[in-house]
Automatic annotation (TrEMBL):
Top-level division of the source organism's lineage: Archaea
Cofactor(s) named in the record: Mn(2+)
PANTHER family named among the record's database cross-references: ARGINASE
Record key words, sorted: Arginine metabolism, Hydrolase, Manganese, Metal-binding
Binding site residues for Mn(2+): H113, D135, H137, D139, D238, D240
GO molecular function, a single term: arginase activity
Name used for this protein in its record: Arginase
Entry note: cofactor: Binds 2 manganese ions per subunit.
Annotated GO biological process: arginine metabolic process; urea cycle
Enzyme class, broadest EC rank: hydrolase
Length: 311
């Protein structure tokens, strides 16, 4: 266990938890994301943000190649490696819950985005929380709507209890309330996800709206949505939220994303708001990256979210 010591920041202590899973998607390599992020200078970055840091290492996650995808679903449909994903998320939820009980802010390193079910479940175990989902995608597919069967496209639907997830106590996941969920940076949706968003109180902010209003205004609204009547919020940062010209090391890149300075400003707003209860960095795939550029950017953004400033 690594410990960066104590600092003179806002008194916040961060516990880093690695969740090196690639069960949720079909592009190998994202399981190496936690190592790449640490190698990218995470400990030093958080130290520069003025927070004490404790790293508990990685959850034990058997390689996908050693397992059968075994389409096991709560209803008709498909969801690859669902049993394995459920196991990882259950253990991760316990780690996150324990971190909060010990007075630490959990920072979870993915791994693919399916781990969000575990992170949010742990963060919401003892409190009503909201969520700000920085992502190019909606993550609102279900086993009956998914075109791929990949669970990394389903975590928000599972946490909201959408459709066939409604009666399934998957990984004992506490539910998010849709009125306290904001998705920021949308630019790629499947038809079923679009239908869900049209019929839901989820606040969904597309890149077009960001272009019209500015990212700063959108993030301000998103933080207010996630904070309204809650005891804090979870920040889920999928690196494909960023434009692939600055974050090439992701499995599902979508052109037209957030640029470098915008991303930092958004994370600075998170730090200034002060309501973040937990955070995760997901979908960093070093096999697709260039010189660890995406992992290093993930470190920088985490540091900004925890309070790092130029002055």
């Amino acid at each position: 266990m690594a410990d960066s010591g104590n600092f003179d920041g806002d008194g916040r202590s961060v516990r880093v938890i690695g969740a090196p899973t690639d069960y949720g998607q079909d592009r190998r390599g994202v399981d190496m994301g936690p190592s790449a992020i640490r190698y990218g200078g995470l400990s030093d970055g958080l130290a520069e943000a003025g927070v004490a840091t404790e790293d508990t290492g990685d959850l034990l996650v058997p390689r996908a190649e050693e397992r059968d995808p075994d389409y096991r679903t709560p209803s008709e449909g498909k969801a690859r490696f669902l049993r394995e994903t459920e196991d990882v998320c259950s253990r991760l939820a316990s780690e996150v819950r324990e971190s909060l009980a010990d007075g630490h802010t959990p920072l979870v390193l993915g791994g693919d985005h399916s781990i969000a079910i575990g992170t949010v479940s742990g963060a919401a175990a003892e409190a009503d929380v909201g969520a700000v989902w920085f992502d190019a995608h909606g993550d609102l597919n279900t086993p009956t709507t998914t075109p791929s069967g990949n669970v990394h496209g389903m975590p928000l639907a599972a946490l909201l209890g959408v459709r066939e997830w409604e009666d399934v106590d998957w990984a004992n996941a506490p539910r998010l309330a849709p009125e306290n969920v904001a998705i920021v940076g949308l630019r790629s949706l499947d038809d079923a996800e679009r239908e869900i968003l049209r019929d839901s109180p989820i606040s969904a902010y597309t890149m077009s709206e960001i272009d019209d209003r500015s990212l700063a205004d959108v993030v301000e609204d998103a933080l207010a949505v996630a904070s309204d009547g809650t005891e804090g919020y979870h920040v889920s940062l999928d690196l494909d939220w960023l434009d692939p010209t600055i974050a090439p090391g992701v499995g599902t890149p979508v052109r037209g994303g957030v640029d470098y300075r915008e991303a930092h400003h958004a994370m600075e707003q998170v730090a200034e708001d002060g309501g973040m209860r937990s955070m995760e960095l997901v979908e960093v795939n070093p096999t697709l990256d260039q010189h660890n550029e995406t992992a290093e950017l993930a470190v920088e953004l985490a540091a900004s979210a925890f309070g790092k400033r130029i002055l």
